[in-house]
Amino acid sequence: MEVKKSPKADLEGKKSTWMLIGYVLILAAVFVAFEWTEPILVSLNRFLRRK
Q: 0.90 exceeded by the pTM?
C-alpha cells in the first residue's frame, strides 16, 4: 500500500514536543494553584469580619 500523506503533514515527529509543552503548562497551573491558596483560618477570619 502506498503512503499518500506528505512528510509536511506528518505530525508524529512533533508529538513529544507538544506533550512536553502540555506537561509544562499543567505543572505551571498546579504551581499557581498551590501558591494562590490561603490558610483556612485566615480566610475564615476575613469572611467573619465582613459581617
A: no
Domain locations along the chain: 27-51
Three cell numbers, residue 32: 499557581
H, E, C per residue of the chain? CCCCCCHHHCCHHHHHHHHHHHHHHHHHHHHHHHHHCCCHHHHHHHHHHHC
For residue 19, pLDDT over 70 is answered with: yes
Reference 13, options 2, 25, 23, 5; nearest CA is: 5
CA distance 36 to 43: 12
**In the numeric block, which cell numbers belong to residue 46?**
476575613
**All 3 cell numbers of residue 2?**
502506498
